[in-house]
Specification:
0% strand; 76% helix; 13 helices
Amino acid sequence: MKKDSRKILDKRAASLALFLSILWSGNPVGTKLGLLDTTPLRLGWMRFLAGGVVVLIYSLFTKKSFKLKRHEYLPLFVLGILFSVQLIFLNVGQNYTPASHAVLIFTTYPLWAGIIAHFVVPGDKLTKFRILGVIIAYLGIVVVFLNNLSESSYGYILGDFLCLICAILLAIRQIFISNLGQSVSQHKMLASQAIFGIVIFIIGSYIFENPTNSFFTKNIVISVIYTGVIIAGFAFMAQHWLLRTYLPSRVIFISLSQPIFGVLLSWIILNEDIGLELYIGSILVIIGSGIAQKKNKP
């Protein structure tokens, strides 16, 4: 049996993971900004098109080959479908809830990833500290959901629930990418996600949305540049490299630092009201993240 070559996160890789976490914290805010002027599926394919162009330029510049081997067809197909379904839940969910809620709920994906990695990634096991951290962080999400119920914010509940499904699907996809990255090139995985995302979202937008408003408003352009070029382009490539090189849960758990940045950006850019439940939820998620990073024997 081939030994798993993925490593424990070092300081340089952890710094990159933290920088990406800050970038990712603005992704729901950027998406919400675009949704002010267009529909979820249309914004999705525009984002994937922008990200795909970045990946294509990088691949051509580094002379990467897109020729597929026989064993790559099925996993890349699965990855493309999983990616598209996950982003459908994200974009549609954000249409029904504030960006600040989406940031916090979306941040639960490292918790799901840590649990999944325990069963499918050799050497990436749950420890007592990580289990305690997961429980504390989940309490932060419960606070947000209970507040919505107490205020009868049923529209938010729907959006929050869809974002939570997205977070679970993202965790599955991140682990899948980490495992697949041991045998399939990064640029092929990125290309498959972009292609499937563009095709599925264009078809879905045509069938279910048929938007008639302008393609190029200020909000849409800013949204596509940030979520497409920066996130779906640069951040995706950097995250894929980290997941291929290091143990996935160690990379992903750093993403639990996102709530504080995302909630602040929601307030600054979208002028969203930040309730007490978001402060409490964010603090619990961050504390849980810190505890989950402590080392002890499984």
